Amino acid sequence: MSLEIDAAETLRPTDYRSSFEQLITSLSTRFINLPIESIDEGLVEALGRVGTYTNVDRCFVYRYTDRRAKIARLTHEWCAEGIPNLKDHLQDLDVTPLSWVTDQLANNQTVHIPDADKLPPEAALLKQLFDKYGIRSAFYLPLFFEHGDTGMLGFSCVGHKKEWSHKSMALLKMVGEIVVNSMDRQNTIRELEASRERYRSVVEDQSEFIARWKPDGSQTFVNDAVCRYFGMTTEELLGMNVWTLIHPDDIDRLKAKIGALTADRPAMVDEHRILLPNGRVMWHEWSDRALFDCDGNVVEIQSVGRDITAQKRDREELIYRQQLESLILNLTSRFINLEPDELDNKIVDALRQVGEFVGGERSYIYMINEEAGQVELAYEWLAPDTAGPPPELKRISFVDHPWGMPTLQQGHPVTLSSLEELPASSEALRRNMEMIGVQSFIVVPTFFENRLFACMGISSKERGREWSKETAAILRLLGEVFVNALARKAALEALAASEERLSLTIDAVADGFYDWDISSGQVYVSNNWLASRQLPLGDNTRDMEEWKDSIHPEDLVEVSEQANEHLAGLTSVFECEYRVVLQDGSERWMLDRGRVIERDESGAPLRMVGIDRDITQEVERRQRLEEADARLAHLARVATMGEVVGGIAHEVNQPLHAAATFANAMSTALENKEPGYEERVTVMGRKISSQINRAADIIRRLREFTRPQPVRMARFDLNTLVRETAEMLGFVSRRKSIRVEFRLDEFLPKVIGDRVQIQQVIVNLLRNAFDAVDASQARPRRVCVTTSLDQGNALLQVVDNGTGLPADVGIESLFDAFTTTKEDGMGIGLAICRSIISSHHGKIYGSANKDHGMTFSVLLPVEKDASHE
Amino acid sequence: MNDTPTVYIVDDDDASRESVEMLLAEMKVAYQSFESAEAFLESYQGERPGCLVTDVRMLEMSGLELQEELQRRGVTLSVVVVTGYADTPVIVRAIKAGAVTLLQKPARNHELWDAIREGLAKDVENYEQELELRELQSRIDSLTPAESEVLDMIVDGIPNKTIASRLDISVRTVEVRRQHVFSKLKADSLAELVKIVMKTKNSS
């Protein structure tokens, strides 16, 4: 706004006065028309005009904010250009020290200070203030507001002195009136508005309902709030019975509570539902107070009530949220530590919870069977007294009932508020639904590995039911949980199966399983491992040193060598038989098979697992078996020899005969004493002793061969053994006129084994070869024995050109006991050979020759140091 | 007989062979050694007299087989077979083959030498007989068929007259042929003539 008053500093005194009066009049009328919100602004403007007009530097209004007029608040201020305002420094001014001024003002006196320097001593503090702000002259006049409030209108000059005339003072007093009036008016309007506000809140926003009614339910009074709330007139409401307004489910309870009121306890508070004419159900809280007659009968009930639907909804919402939360927690947590076999029950229970929570009669999971082109009911919960689905609904072909499938495929829930929404093509579906009383349902898809996997659904008898997003969300969650649980079930089952397999394997195949963390030296061992070493169960983490200490000292070197070789990556598997010494001092044989399963970048072993088997019984059995084998071998040897003991004797006779002939020649030479006989006799003597030795050797070998004796592993020369054995069997080959040829590798390293046992193998192979050659008519009759080095092993081969193998006999079966191709054979020869060779960690096998006859081969380990030759 | 008897040693056992060689050397008997029957057969041309010393069991051809082979070739050389085991089949076979001596190993004292000496003596004897027989046979072989015809009848004791009528020739012709037979066979008497004929008949 602007006050269109021209400044008139240059006017003459008469003009000045008249124009000042005009100014004041103008101000006065102007202020009356000012709207309340413009009054403050108008006041400052007015002060400015007056200040300019009277040539002062400041015009201002102080108003005391307390009744005792101690604190003055600067409410309006105008300052001339270049003059600092007071608002920043003296907004709330404690006027106590300025009593020289305030006292005069309180007495309705103006205070005129034309020259600050002439202030009386009592006004020393004012003088300080003036000096501080450079004020040279001032004029103050009191303001008296409505309700006894007081204030001050002040004018001051900075830098120059001014003396106010009486006339000016009178006019300024009028300005003071205007200020007071306008400020009072401002106050009044403000108060009025506050009052209106209060009224509105009391009257217009009143939501408290007040009603009075009789025990029969007829109403005698309702307030406007009730009318407004129900949207009915007072008359309409009074014509209605209270009970018709109350939700039927709450009537009995409320009646009972009202009936229970007594004169001593006449009041009660109840929450119940109210039916609105539009059918909506609202929650109300009513305080009912019964009025009794002198007989104690209820004559009237006064009720004050309010709508708490919103709060109730909030509360219900909160409860719902809490329940939802708990449901979700329940759904998810129950599946966490679930054994796979519990899954089915838990899922049905989850369906029950969801069904009960959401409110439906049936909740279910259908699995998608894409191959069959149908959905199949997998899990189902039915509310009590609810009919299950007919068979037609247990398998629903989505080929025949494509309705909803595209939506589900896209991952969206399918909801149906009423069966009418179903298209005509789904008539059969609709009939089936109708049959079990389903009116609405919601189905939510669940995906697994990007394929529609299952559908979770809830159906309801309720018609027109709107399914919320939350329900869809819960079903989705259920679906997630379900899929996770199924996936987990599958995983657990797979794990269990694999664990079972492992444990079965460990239990069945070996006694102890171990897992050695090589860097830490810690070994995790299974209970079986502990049991096999008579250690207490439970302490499954052991120290490798402890293990080493338990190994029999005689075996430790071997074990360490083998282990180090494996750790160094030289062997693919660590396999070692050794003894461990248990705490009670007894010894057990262990077969340890292990493998490094983890190495670092440099190939250093990190982890090794293995199986440690107690083979004590096996070893004992093996030893017994070896003993038995040895006995059997002996028997076989004796049998072999017994058969031809005469022949062997002939073999002895051969050198003996030569010796006898030499002796005959010698005696002749001695008798005839022909020249040079002495020399010849000496030669003959040597020949004789050589033949005697030859005979003795044959006898010794024969004895060795036929005498039962323990297994003696030693290094020996295979070629020598071959020659000796062939010689021992010379009687056989000679009798059968078979030439035995030798092709022996003279650089063959020594083999390791039991000489007698290996000899038995050679005897068997030679005899078989002789028999085979003898049975054939092939000429020349020949058996060839070869030795050679084959991939680090000694290879012995006996090649015959005999009859070969009958067509109906497999080569391998030859090695089975009691298999024989000879009419008089025992069928144990090759079986014993195999047993002997395998106990030597060797190999024996037969093969048919290209032309005729067979070759039997024996591989035997050779002395290690020489194996590189 | 001018030939020195020779001992033929056939044995695949070096020691056996050598021992026999040494023995024969001491006995101052000539000998030849062979490692196998085959080697012997290849070298031997039927020289007499002599004695074959061999073993029953030998690679390739055995001692008995060798003897049989010699018989097949008509060689009546003395044979000493040494065997480590004189089991029945061997003995039967040896007897059938007409081996001179079957000696069991190891031989005692001078058994082997005795057998060899005996074999040699026998062979000298046999060889003389064989030579005589061969002489007699050649005399018989020198007769003409007509003379042989007459000889057969003379040996059968048929008188000249009867011979002449059977052959439808004159008695005179019979007498002439009879004189030729006596002369060609160098027989002085009828008894001698019969003896010669019997000898040759037995050996064939």
Automatic annotation (TrEMBL), chain A:
The keyword Hydrolase does not apply. Its EC number is 2.7.13.3. Keywords: Kinase, Phosphoprotein, Transferase. CDD domains: HisKA, PAS. This is histidine kinase. SMART domains: GAF, HATPase_c, HisKA, PAC, PAS. NCBIfam families: sensory_box. GO terms for molecular function: phosphorelay sensor kinase activity. InterPro entries: GAF (IPR003018), GAF-like_dom_sf (IPR029016), HATPase_C_sf (IPR036890), HATPase_dom (IPR003594), His_kinase_dom (IPR005467), HisK_dim/P_dom (IPR003661), HisK_dim/P_sf (IPR036097), PAC (IPR001610). It comes from the Bacteria. PANTHER family: PAC DOMAIN-CONTAINING PROTEIN, PHYTOCHROME-LIKE PROTEIN CPH1. Residues 647-864 form the Histidine kinase domain. It catalyses: ATP + protein L-histidine = ADP + protein N-phospho-L-histidine. Residues 268-320, 574-627 form the PAC domain. It holds the Pfam family HATPase_c. Residues 195-265 form the PAS domain.
Automatic annotation (TrEMBL), chain B:
Gene3D superfamilies: 3.40.50.2300, Winged helix-like DNA-binding domain superfamily/Winged helix DNA-binding domain (1.10.10.10). Residues 6-120 form the Response regulatory domain. One of its GO terms (biological process) is regulation of DNA-templated transcription. The modification 4-aspartylphosphate is found at D55. Residues 136-201 form the HTH luxR-type domain. Keywords: DNA-binding, Phosphoprotein, Transcription, Transcription regulation. GO terms for molecular function: DNA binding. Signal peptide: none annotated. This is Response regulator.
